Each structure stands twice: as C-alpha cells, then as structure tokens.
Amino acid sequence: MRIGVLTAGGDCPGLNAVIRSVVHRALTGYGDEVIGFEDGFKGLLDGYFRPLDLNAVSGILARGGTILGSARLERARLREAAENCAELQRRYGIDVLIPIGGEGTLTAARMLSDAGMPVVGVPKTIDNDISATDRTFGFDTAVMVATEAIDRLKTTAESHQRVMVVEVMGRHAGWIALESGMAGGAHGICLPERPFQVDDLVKMVEERFARGKKFAVVCVAEGAHPAEGSMEYRKGEIDQYGHERFQGIGTRLAKELEKRLGKEARPVILGHVQRGGTPTAYDRVLATRFGWHAVEAAHRGDFGRMTALRGTSITMAPLADATTRLKTVPEDRMLEAESVF
Ligand code: F6P
C-alpha cells in the first residue's frame, strides 16, 4: 500500500508523533510506502512531497510543530482538490490519504472522501473542540503551558497587588481556559460559551481585596465576549478562512478592570506559546495511538472516518460526526467551576 500523509491547519504539539507512528506501523507492520505532502493540502495540489522512511522520522517524537509544514487553504482551492481527487490519487499513486488536522482539515478531508478519495482522518487541535472524540492531542500540552503561566503570574500579581488577565486560545470553545483556569486556580474564568458580566469580575476582585488577598488572576479565552451592555466591545470581522478577527479581549478586559477597580491590571496574551514546543507524555501517547490506528483503518478499508478516543479506547468515527458541530464546554463542566465564573 502507498500512503500519503499531510498536516494542515494550525500546528499543534504531537503532529510529529502521529507522522512517526504512521511511518513505523506502515513500514514495519505492512511493508507499505509512505509519502508526506508538504504544507498541508497545498503540497497535494502543487506537487510538493517526499518519501518518509524510518530515518526521516527518527528523533521527531518529542519535537513540536510538524516536519511536513502546515498551512490553511482557501475554500476555492479545497474545492479544486475535491474536483480533481481521482487525478490527484493517480498522480501520486496513493491508496489512501491520512490528513491530520482540526475542524477545517477534517471538513476538507470529508469533501475529498465524498468525492471518492480513500481517506482516514486524524483529529488534532489544542482547542479540544472536535466532536466525536473525547480528546485531541495538543490540548494537554496547551493546558500545561497555560497552567504554568497562571502559577507564575500569581506570584508576580501578589508582589504588586495587581489583577492579571491571562488570555488563552479558544475561538468557539473554552476548554483551555476552563482546564488551565481550574488547574491554576484562576479567580475568574471567561469562556466563549457564556458571555461574562464585567460587574461579576469587579465584585470578585473587590471581595478578595477586602479579605486581604490583594491580587487576582482572570483567565479569559480569546473568543470570550462580554454580555450585552456589560462593557463596550465589538465583534471583529470574518477573515478569508471564516475566522473572526479577534479584538484582543484580554487587553480590553484588563483596561476595563483597571478603570472600574482603580487598581493596576495587566493583560498577558499567551498566544502561540501554547502551540509551540514539546508535547506532554499524554499527547505523545495519544498521537502515537492515533497514528497506529489510522494505518490499521487504512488496511481494513475503513475510509471516510477518523480515529477517535472514547474513554480509554481508540475507535473510528465518521468524518461527518466530527465536522458538523463543534464540541463546546457543556453546562455541567461550567457548573463544576462555577464559583470562579
Ligand atoms: O485552531 C487552533 C488555534 O490555535 C485557535 O485557538 C486560534 O484562534 C488559532 O488557531 C490561531 O491560529 P493562527 O494564528 O495560526 O491562524
């Protein structure tokens, strides 16, 4: 069998672990050939690829990013790929394509699959917002980075009697904010799923100062919005990939809290630090298991589906289940952390 693999969309710790695992299982388990397309679907469309053997993936397990490069692709070019998928499959002689990516990539994978390409998807995203899998690799690493940041910010906040507003990633789903906020003991957590009241945050900080705790940390997801009338904040425009251009909620909220509280507040935008660097052991294991199961699925002819974690087992889920609805933070998870909302 000849397998094509690519990584697309925003990168994420653990991508290299999947690539390595696919190559190991395919080569040593089945005697397959693997080629890697560069820069996601661009490589597939424009003919940039290279063979992947055991040496090519040696030493990459713990490395962040992706050795294949990654890119987002405009809808029009994805349609081009779907329309030409039979020709593309012939051109590279591949029996299956394994795209590793988030919601956008899996939607593209579904388009190719619907057009007749044999596809086995592997879900990834630090945001953990893909339905049909309990977890995506990269999330654990991002939560660890954000938690460490909160821990560190607490000590400097306390020294200076300040409010720190930590902005973490999460466009539509607040999983990173929720879990790093809980793990780091943030005093306020703001998620995209529930508009927040600035008054509640002001009250929380005032109460803390009144009982002698003269600092506070608020963890806010980049996609969180204040409740209507709670603070002046306009939603950003939509870019060419269908993403809202964020207006910097962390910075805006810190300014607003400083104004209302009359105390110093500082924004800290963690940004791509959450996506870079070495994956945690958890993410390396999950990514490795996904890679192994993707090759097994390819050999079973289990196309149009993606690897998924259910409980502690890896199963296969239809690409359609992963791409029709985002997995956002449910009400019961918010309730568990309600005292800090
Ligand atoms: O989808 C993952 C993600 O990390 C989002 O949380 C974030 O909004 C986005 O990617 C940023 O991506 P980029 O700056 O690479 O376009």
Write the layout of secondary structure elements.
Layout: E1 2-7, H1 15-30, E2 33-37, H2 41-46, E3 49-51, H3 75-83, H4 85-92, E4 96-101, H5 103-114, E5 120-123, H6 139-160, E6 163-168, H7 175-184, E7 188-190, H8 198-210, E8 216-221, H9 249-261, E9 265-269, H10 281-300, E10 305-310, E11 313-318, H11 319-323, H12 331-336
Parallel strand pairs: 1-2, 1-4, 4-5, 5-10, 6-8, 6-9, 7-8
Antiparallel strand pairs: 2-3, 10-11
Helix pairs in contact: 1-10, 3-5, 6-7, 8-9
Describe this structure in words.
The record marks 104 as: Important for substrate specificity. This protein has 12 helices and 11 strands. Strand 7, helix 8 (198-210) and strand 8 form a beta-alpha-beta unit. The longest helix is centred in the middle third of the chain and has 22 residues, at 139-160. It is of the alpha/beta class and 341 residues long. The mean pLDDT is 95. Residues 10, 102, 125-127, 169-171, 222, 275 line the site of 6-O-phosphono-beta-D-fructofuranose. 6-O-phosphono-beta-D-fructofuranose binds at residues 10, 102, 125-127, 169-171, 222, 275.
